Amino acid sequence: MKAIQLTSHSLNAFRQAELPDPQPGHGEVLVRLRAATLNYADVAVATGAFPGATFPMVPVADGAGEVVALGEGVDGRSLGLAIGDRVVPHFMPGWQDGAMTPRNVAAMRGITLQGSLAEYAAVPASSLVALPPHLDFVQGAALPIAATTAWNAVRSASVRPGSVVVLLGTGGVSIFALQFAKASGATVIMASSSDEKLERARGLGADHLINYRATPAWDEEVLKLTDGRGADLVVETVGEATIARSINAAAMGGTIFTVGFVTGTRAAINLLPVIVKALRIVGNSTGSVADLAQATRAIAAHRIVPVIDRVFDMDETAAAYAELSTGGRHFGKLAIAH
Q: Residue 133 and which of 9, 70, 270, 305 are 20 to 30 A apart at CA?
């Protein structure tokens, strides 16, 4: 099969390769992959900021495709799984449901397991989620990490009509969170450095727009927009540079759902407002297969369409990684089609 391999910790260490077709083992399914999408974690793996990868390896956690073979022990009827079904493999196939444990997150596609930049992948049948009928393969490939993370963010704060949600930037998690929050009836405040992206976010339902270059104290603007109350949920996708402002922007009893570290991981914070406002700071590392299934059902029910900024070919993998690593230029997700 054709594949892309990452050979070392470098954004220029990609090569095209011919590898043996994988064979599904016991309990596994063979998936013909059709598309992949990038997450910042993929760049972190390539640059050595995310540990666990061994080289050469097939990169990229997220993908989508169709079932072409069932391995021994896979009861397609009981699983509702058949050859030809369009599916999404979960990023961490061992995490089926419940709490995160070291054991159930040890195996990660595109890191410790072969990833999505290959024609075929053998994956546990239990890790597959059906692709909603209204989505194509490229859109479906956006679901495993970004949609699951955004879904868990919205659920963490019990977002409902009347809730206020603040989103930083316009990457994949933020755009999915915007779509889920609006489907839940929330008011969404979007912050970005680009007026053009903010207008695109308005088209997806964002209620209030803040250009944080023009308004560096965006947290104070959030307080003004909410008559001093603040946000029930802040999805913190940036990290070190913004966490203090996220704390200030949060309402009493609010939740800061922290998932990103593009500006660094070592943040000094003032604990007093965290204590006084009884804030919940929730870390997240995506979610389980069950979480992905719930997110996917919500996407199907609300006819949510993932936003894909640009689609690259497999031989443009290095360019796709370079585009993501520059930060801030894309809106939604970057995809790689097979």
A: 70
Whole-angstrom distance, CA of residue 39 vs CA of residue 61: 8
Per the structure, the count of domains in the chain is 2
According to DSSP, the residues that pair with 36 across neighbouring strands are: 63, 336
Supply φ then ψ for residue 273, to 5 degrees. -65, -30
Name which of 116, 91, 151, 146 is nearest 332 in CA terms.
146
Range of the domain at 161: 147-283
Regarding pTM above 0.85, the answer is yes
pLDDT by residue for the chain (338 residues), tens only, comes to 999 999 999 999 999 999 999 999 999 999 999 999 999 999 999 999 888 899 999 999 999 999 999 999 998 887 889 999 999 999 999 999 999 999 999 999 999 999 999 999 999 999 999 999 999 999 999 999 999 999 999 999 999 999 999 999 999 999 999 999 999 999 999 999 999 999 999 999 999 999 999 999 999 999 999 999 999 999 999 877 889 999 999 999 999 999 977 777 788 888 999 999 999 999 998 999 999 999 999 999 999 999 999 999 999 999 999 999 987 689 999 999 99
- Indicate whether 125 and 223 sit together in one domain: no
What gap in Å lies between CA 232 and CA 228, rounded to an integer? 12
Instruction: Give CA angle at 198 (196, 200), nearest 5°.
Output: 75
Together in a domain, 113 and 19: yes
CATH number of the domain at 222, please.
3.40.50.720
Residue 64: enclosing H or E segment and its boundaries?
A: strand 62-70
Question: Of 138, 114, 5, which Cα lies nearest the Cα of 64?
Answer: 138
Considering the domain boundaries, does residue 296 fall inside one?
no
Co-location of 166 and 100 in the same domain: no
Indicate the DSSP class of residue 127. G
Report the alpha-carbon distance of residue 98 to residue 228 in Å, rounded. 37
